[in-house]
Amino acid sequence: MSLLVTNIGELVTNDPARGGPLGVVGDAALVAEHGHVAWVGPARHAPQADARIDVHGAAVIPGFVDSHTHLVFAADRAAEFVARMSGTPYTGGGIATTVAATRDADDGTLRANLARLVAEANGQGSTTIEVKSGYGLSTVDEERLLRLAREVTDETTFLGAHVVPREYVGRLEEYVALVTGPMLTAAAPLARWVDVFCERGAFDEDASRTVLRAGMAAGLQPRIHANQLGPGPGVRLAVELGAASADHCTHLSTEDVDALASSATVATLLPGAEFATRSPYPDARRLLDAGATVALATDANPGSSFTTSMPFCIAVAVREMRMTPAEAVWAATAGGAAALRRDDVGRLSPGARADLAVLDAPSHVHLAYRPGVPLVRTVVIAGEAT
User: Fold this and answer.
1) Looking at the structure, do residues 57 and 69 belong to the same domain, yes or no?
2) Same domain, 327 and 197
3) Residue 186 in 3-state DSSP?
4) End-to-end CA distance of the chain
5) CATH number for the domain including 354?
6) 194: β partners
7) 113-127, pLDDT tens digit by residue?
8) Do 133 and 142 form a contact (C-beta atoms < 8 A)?
């Protein structure tokens, strides 16, 4: 089955061979076959296909690659949000509330909430979504959350080292032994990635290194929550271990920026978290000017960033983090793919997976120019309109 998407006013390909930061093609068409992009070029030269979508001059972009989410959980933390908006600072302590609710929820409840959030994200243009565990923090519950996450994505991350659960408070070494022992054994067959919250009040540098190295020895690839609440060792640890991504990157030293710029570790920025916690935004301009690779992701979770909207994150990144619209769109597509070490998504060129979003707008610029407006008209995943 082949699909022709034609009369595209502006096609963002992220193909550097086509020039410019986004590889934009005007008056374009695209053909998908067997779930992948087979042809891109001028609409007047488009080959025939089994099915056709005429977008009447709209812009088409690659589907968003949301490389950082926490979508398997129960309940919400709206009261915590109200408290923050009234002046209570964010410390990460509310994670325990979600852990308790998630442990108490049955699989059906968790599965339904996960399906609702994935559908919500898909409808806003996200076609590749990473999902972490981290709200179970016991062997049985971490395995359960990863099993449910695997039902919706191959990009699953073991985050047993999210925080130390209440029953292990004051016993960090014992909990790290659990995470790197029985919990990892149960989680590894269901995960691609291992992650740790390297932060004051969570896991220090030594514990974080122990968790990540154990995950790597079990065949998982590392990524890390780093430098969100203040300066710390997370970014440098990510680079040391060759992590695919250091996520948050809110408080960076010159050494941190230089380390990222000289490595293959992607700086994944999560503006939804700063928006929802009234925290300082990361300085994307500083990272970009230094030559670091930057991604944007939602950090979708019930406590500190309860949004599944990549367009929202793009708008905030442009307004508050000194990114251009083109840089933000690239970071939300090709940048997210780099953070997942994928070359088959985040672009629209022959051989890539045919994941795209049709905008109800003439240009990608409108994603930042018209914040809060539902601009994603049609989503195509692996060549199938959803």
Assistant:
1) no
2) yes
3) helix
4) 15
5) 2.30.40.10
6) 158, 222
7) 999 999 999 999 999
8) yes
If asked whether residues 259 and 381 sit together in one domain, one would say no
Domain of residue 186 covers 65-339
- One domain for residues 16 and 81: no
Place of tokens 């209570």: 88
pLDDT recorded at residue 93: 76
Of 322, 339, 356, the residue at which a domain comes to its end is 339
81 shares its domain with 203: yes
Residue of 331, 274, 254, 247 lying closest to 64 (CA atoms): 331
Cβ pair 298, 270 in contact under 8 A = yes
Q: Which residue intervals of 44-192 are DSSP H helices?
A: 78-85, 95-104, 107-123, 139-149, 172-178, 184-187
Whether the CB-CB separation of 3 and 354 falls below 8 Å is answered with yes
Dump pLDDT digits (tens) for 31-41. 999 999 999 99
pTM: 0.98
**Claim to verify: residue 333 and residue 379 sit in the same structural domain:** no
Residue 187 corresponds to which tokens in the numbers above?
């989680």
Place of tokens 């999902």: 131
- Check whether residue 155 and residue 171 sit in a common domain: yes
Distance, in Å, from the CA atom of 13 to the CA atom of 60, rounded to the nearest integer, reads 9
Alpha helices by DSSP H, listed for the chain, are: 78-85, 95-104, 107-123, 139-149, 172-178, 184-187, 205-217, 234-240, 254-261, 271-277, 284-290, 310-320, 325-332, 334-339, 366-369
* Predicted confidence (pLDDT) at residue 91 exceeds the cutoff of 90: no
